[in-house]
Amino acid sequence: SRLNCCPASAIFRDGSNVMQSIESSLATGRPFTRRHEFLDCYSTEPIKVDYSVIPVELGSDKKLLMELQPIDRFLKINREEAMLSVQDTSKTLIRGLAHEIKNPLGGIRGAAQLLDNEIADQSLDGETRELCQIIITETDRLRNLVDRLLGPNQVPTYTQISIHEVTERVVAVLQAELQGQIEIVRDYDPSIPEVTVDPELLIQAFLNIARNAVQSLREVEIQVAQTEPSWKPRLKFTTRTLRQHAIGQDFHRVVIKVDIQDNGKGVPEKIRDQLFFPMITGRSDGTGLGLSIAHSIVHQHGGAIEFESEPGETIFSIILPLELTNELPA
User: Cα separations (Å) of 99 from 94, 104, 105, 287?
Assistant: First the structure.
């Protein structure tokens, strides 16, 4: 109804080209189709659509029938399915590599321990024994890295809990780590009912996303310390409910939306399409595992992660169904 009586040139972002195509179709009588056009509806965000125009004759009048098909949801579903497919392939590959890597690491560690015991028995110099300890420590570090690549390996233990108990645990951990260096803001909807989740897994997912934001804020703080002394790093947690919301191909009556927002530098354009894939990171010292693990955990809960980013504002949104579905992903 918002589009009623509106000229086509006013509702499309690229109005002039749309009008040229319409006038050509009216003159030649040939139908046409355009894909991935943006429709501006004034009171809402722009909608991406495919549209077809078909010339029709009503008596002596020549008219055009325009059919609009919103495609945002289909594109979102396709992106999510592609991401899950790549992640499944990555997990299969990583599991195979993990087996091949952890076996020799176990042998190296065992040999280093035996050598360390022999050095201790023979009372050799401390430097020689220290080298053995380095081998053991680095072997353990590599095993831990392989375990992190595999992601969470425990079966979720679901319980009913307030989502704010989860976010408050996350905030408490961050406050202890940050010691007031970054302002943390909460904007909660107290009317949100309890949700069925695994609290420990969800805390890990939220922490991974929040720590990623903290790293972005720290990098910006170093860059703007001299030029923008008024800028202050800020991390914001917002909770809301959404009604009649789609997660993938499933519609849910009510979902919980948790936004983790920062005023950092934003997500680099070149990695946005692969952001949740393993080993993808925008930091030189990053492992690229935090967001991938967070995505896996949220998917285990039947939810999804979305993000919007530009310099100065990045929002990661965790969408969780309020009701526990009968068949959650493994």
Answer: 9, 9, 10, 20
Q: Which three-class secondary structure state does DSSP give residue 286?
A: coil
Going from the C-alpha of 101 to that of each of 54, 115, 131, 148, the distances in angstroms are: 61, 21, 22, 13
DSSP symbol at 192: P
CA nearest to 21, candidates 61, 53, 43, 44: 53
Judge whether 202 and 301 are in contact, CB under 8 Å: yes
Beta strands in 40-146 (DSSP E): 47-58, 61-70
- Name the residue with tokens 């909608």: 47
pLDDT band with cut points at 50, 70 and 90 for residue 149? low
**For residues 147 and 287, is the Cβ–Cβ distance under 8 A?**
no
- Within its chain, how far is the Cα of 314 from the centroid? 11
Q: What is the pLDDT of residues 11-66, one digit of tens each?
A: 787 777 888 888 888 888 888 888 878 877 655 567 778 888 888 888 778 888 88
What torsion, rounded to 10 degrees, do the Cα atoms 239, 245, 250, 253 define?
A: 90
* 319-322-326 Cα angle (round to 5): 105
Q: Whole-angstrom Cα distance, residue 315 to residue 238? A: 10
> What is d(CA 3, CA 213) in angstroms, rounded to the nearest whole number?
39
- The backbone torsions φ and ψ at residue 274, rounded to the nearest 5 degrees and listed phi first, read -115, 20
Instruction: Give the pairing of strands 234-247 and 61-70.
Output: unpaired
| Kind and range of the H or E run holding 165 | helix 163-178
Residues 6+ apart with CB under 8 A from 58: none
The per-residue pLDDT for range 169-225, each reduced to its tens digit, is 999 999 998 988 999 999 999 999 999 999 989 998 999 999 989 988 888 876 776
Asked whether the beta carbons of 166 and 206 are under 8 A apart, the reply is yes
Burial class (CB in 10 A: 0-12, 13-18, 19+), 197: buried
Q: Is the pTM of this model over 0.85?
A: no
